[in-house]
Amino acid sequence: MGLLTLVMIAAVCGVLLETTIFHLLPLGPVMPDLVVILCVYLALREQSVVGALGAFLLGYFVDSFSGDAIGLHAFAMSLIFLLVYLLARQLWMDNVVANVAVVFAASLLKALSVALLLVFYLSADYPWRHLVSTVWIEAAIAAAFSPFVFSVLDGGRRVWGLD
Amino acid sequence: MSEFLRRNQVLLGSGVFLLLSLVLLTVNRGRVRRFDPLGAVFLEVLRPLQAVTTQTTGALGNLWTRYVSLVGIDAENRELKLRLRSLEAEHRRDAEIELENRRLSRLLDFQGDVPSQLVTARVIAKDASGLFQSFTLDRGEGSGIKPGMAVVCADGVVGRIAQVSPHASRVLLISDHNSGVDALVQRTRARGIVEGALNRTCSMKFIKRGDEIDVNDVIVTSGLDGLFPKGILIGRVSRVTRKDFGLFQVAEVVPAADFAKLEEVLVLKSPPREVNAAIDALERARATPEPTATPTPEPTPTPPPAVRRHGTPPPAPRASPAPAAHSPPAARATAAPAPRPKPHA
Q: What is the pTM of this model?
């Protein structure tokens, strides 16, 4: 539960950055997604029901500050948690390269699941150009940020005595 | 059994949360008032942080720009520089106050022209993802804001309230690809639906192929969607696409409001039907300066068309621009090009 609290605090900081600071950067429609890194971190470090709850809450938190469909990101984050958890049971994931690759794939998976839910479940319009053009850049930025975020969270765990 | 549950607790837990997400999506599908037990709490938690961060980054941005412009001054002028700095700081404060004063004055002018109860709110944050386009406002239920209310600024339409908490609310912008506003071409009264596009512009769809529309035409709200009062400026046509086939033509619309620089907005608390009735009264008063013996019939209220949201199909295009006999607002929009109290054009 301590790790969940730590991740939720990080999520507050991440969403705060995304909603205020990142819009000042000359990135156009590209929005670095920090929350997906936290979701992957949870799936790798907290492999329990609490971790699944954390992933759901992360998605719900993003839903509260993005778009108008509640449950969209919650579904995407829960799906990412589940798939990364299953992957981590099969492969050795305790190295930086694997973490970066998983965050990259998770970011793409999130965008794809959101697009599919919008189109096939909510019958809403989806700008497919977004998926083709900017999602790759967003995934690359998330992957580039992931070692830093992972090390900050690991440091937080040590400080809080959660190891 | 318990051993099975224990071994597969993560899989089962994830399954439950995936199901819960789908339940939330299903329950909120097509609803203006959402079932969102935690959303208001999250909004409230982040609101003060967002307000402080936005103010601080604005101040730091100004400071940085000014500092860079002062780096090249000669050391011999240090004394003058100090004085200059203090004067500049004062000037910056004054300029900021003056700009704010101008913005608020424009809002007040606008407020005076729209006969509706309005709430002024500041933009404190933007959307958390690049996919959607929304703003967080520093006013919420405590100021009487409710989901579905229209949001405008002095330049025109901004969007509609998607979510509220006691002291904050979120606006889905008209440039979001899930927004839809019933609109009119001001010059020719051609009808269509203005929808958002991801490139921060909008497109006006379902314009009848035979209707006249051209680049630079002004697009205003029709008032028929039950959200926005009639005649509020949406934007200008930047391109018209008419294919060789099909019933409709599409126009690209550049929103009048600059969403990147928006700092204050107005939330319309009165239902659009009341606002439209008040606008009608104003128009009638202007059209007939002397009182006549014949009483003017009151417009019959018509049920507003469904607001376009997730899960609902786009509003059906009207077969004819001619007003239906039972629909006075449509008649106003199509047949009577009467001047609006605030034409914005």
A: 0.65
